[in-house]
Structures are given as structure tokens and as C-alpha cells.
Write a structure and sequence with these properties.
2 domains, 10-stranded mixed sheet, 3-stranded mixed sheet, 8 helices
Length: about 325
């Protein structure tokens, strides 16, 4: 009886919904791949490692490797200066390391302005300098040099003076370099102290000295050695010739007039064989020339400049 009753009961069939199927499939997938979450974690770790390696490589290449190290240096515009000396100075200036880790010659750390200042401070001959960095490893240095006019010695120091009358390089006037340069060496006997980068001479004054030296050689074949002045402001210039006699100039008289007077005396009154016997020829008074021989105690006035004067007149003169 009970068995027939159970047979007559209808079986209830449950049809799973779509959502339940999806959930079931996900559960099944998780059951089939229990390490999927672990794989995702490993992937993230690997990605992080790759990113870290990438940035580490960039940092190493930029800051620690030789990729941006200066390997080429070009210098232009030099005349008196030696370009190799400039290169050596800059190389030494950017050598070494920061904090014992970072190379100083790395293009990222190099300051073009600082290199320019350091060069100008070390080489007084430089009037202006331009420094350019060309990545990844080149430096271009363009130099404009000062024009050297003469060497001025006073107060125990000697400096080269540029065309503007400014001192810029302390030198030994007896050095081979100065002797070979042919620059006039002027000594201020007053002993006034001079220092680096000081305006000490008038450009016209310097040009007078240079022109006088050149014209003595060109017009009369008279070479000049030492040049002295009692004091620069006086305009009094005294040149010692290679023959051992002196010529006294005064800038205010004018070089052309003084040269005309000198040539007249040397060519018409004093035989060339006796030039070496001269003590000095004084051109400092306009229209008059005084000269003295070494074995004569009197100063003689030339007859060439004043027709009314006695050719052998003894006269007072400047000292």
C-alpha cells in the first residue's frame, strides 16, 4: 500500500537557473584551478621587478656609467694661448667624483658657466669665453683673447697690459716667453704698486711707446731694450738702445716731431760711428734737441732745431 502510494507521487524536477549555472561554473573553475590567485600575485611581482630593473638601468646609465662622460673637447679662438693647456685645465677641473660615487665629468653635472669662469680666472689672457655642452659627450669652448700691448713693471710686480690699459697676467719680464713675444717692457721708477685687472695705462700712451720703438728700428735701425719712466703721469719716456745710449721722449711733444728732430741730429751732426759714444739724446723740449757724450760733462744743443742757437751751446735741460 505504501509502495503504490510512493509510485503514484510525482517527482519534482528542479531546473537550475542561468545565474546558478554561472556561479556553479565559477566554483567548478576555482575547484579545478586552485592556484590561479597565486599566479596573479606572481605576475604582479614580476611586473614590479621589471619596472624596478628598468628604472635602475636608466639611473645607472645616466649617473654611474660612462654614457654621458665627456670624451671630446674642442677649443677655438686661441692665438697666444695653448689650446692643449686649456683642455688639460678643464679636464682637471671636472675630474673626480661627488660623494665618491658620481663622476664629476658627467654632462648632467657639468656647469658651462662655471667652466667659463674658472678658465677666465686661471688664464688672464682670456677676454671672454663661451662654453657649450653637446650631448651626450662633447664640450665646445670658444675663446676671445686680450690683445697684449706691453709689460708694465712697478712696485716689484710685472703685468701684461691689454689694449684697454688693464693689467691681466703677472709675468717675469726676463722669461723666454716675454723675450720672444717682442712686447715692450716699461718700468715705472716711482715704484707705484700695481695689481691684477687694474687700469694703469692710457691706450694712447702705450701706442706712443710701441710706435716709438718700431720707428726707431724702422727709420734708424736703432734697437730698443729697457724702457723707463719716472712716473706714468709725466709722459716722460726713456728708452735704452742696444748701443748703450738713451733717448728721452715726451708724449706731449708728439712722436712725429721728435723723430724728425732725432733723425736730423743723428744724420747731420753725429757720425754713426760715434753713436755708441753717446750718453743720451733728449727730445723732450719742443724745437730743441740736447745730447751728451759719455766722456763729456756738458749737454750740447743741436743746431738743427733752432737756427739762432750756437751748435755747441751748453744749455740747461730737463732731468
Amino acid at each position: 500500500m505504501f509502495g503504490s502510494a510512493n509510485k503514484n507521487k510525482k517527482r519534482k524536477i528542479v531546473v537550475p537557473s542561468e545565474n546558478s549555472r554561472v556561479i556553479s561554473s565559477k566554483k567548478t573553475a576555482r575547484q579545478r584551478h586552485p592556484d590561479s590567485s597565486v599566479g596573479k600575485t606572481i605576475g604582479k611581482i614580476l611586473y614590479a621587478i621589471l619596472v624596478a630593473v628598468f628604472f635602475a638601468t636608466i639611473i645607472y646609465a645616466l649617473f654611474f656609467s660612462r654614457l654621458l662622460a665627456v670624451t671630446q673637447m674642442n677649443v677655438s679662438g686661441t692665438d697666444k694661448l695653448n689650446s692643449n693647456d686649456l683642455k688639460k685645465f678643464v679636464s682637471a677641473d671636472i675630474s673626480g667624483k661627488y660623494l665618491k660615487l658620481l663622476n664629476r665629468n658627467n654632462m648632467l653635472f657639468i656647469s658651462a658657466d662655471k667652466i667659463g669662469r674658472d678658465l677666465a680666472g686661471r688664464f688672464g689672457q682670456i677676454e671672454s669665453v663661451s662654453v657649450k655642452k653637446i650631448f651626450p659627450n662633447k664640450i665646445f669652448i670658444s675663446i676671445a683673447e686680450r690683445k697684449s700691448m706691453l709689460v708694465l713693471c712697478s712696485g716689484g710686480n710685472c703685468y701684461v697690459v691689454d689694449e684697454n690699459g688693464n693689467t691681466f697676467s703677472k709675468v717675469d719680464p726676463n722669461s723666454h716667453e716675454i723675450q720672444q713675444s717682442g712686447l715692450p717692457v716699461l718700468t715705472d721708477d716711482s715704484g707705484k704698486a700695481i695689481s691684477f685687472d687694474e687700469g694703469v695705462l692710457n691706450p694712447d700712451y702705450m701706442q706712443f711707446i710701441i710706435d716709438a720703438k718700431d720707428r726707431l728700428k724702422g727709420d734708424l735701425d736703432v734697437s730698443v731694450g729697457e724702457i723707463h719712466t719716472p712716473q706714468i703721469a709725466s709722459g716722460d719716456i726713456r728708452m735704452m738702445t742696444a748701443g748703450g745710449w738713451k733717448i728721452y721722449f715726451d708724449q706731449t711733444v708728439g712722436l712725429q716731431k721728435e723723430m724728425d728732430m732725432l733723425k736730423a741730429v743723428l744724420n747731420n751732426e753725429i757720425d754713426k760711428s760715434k753713436w755708441s759714444d753717446l750718453d743720451y739724446v733728449d727730445l723732450r723740449i719742443d724745437g730743441k734737441v740736447y745730447y751728451k757724450f759719455k766722456n763729456d760733462n756738458s749737454d750740447q744743443q743741436s743746431s738743427q732745431q733752432n737756427q739762432n742757437s750756437n751748435p755747441q751751446q751748453t744749455s740747461s735741460k730737463k732731468n
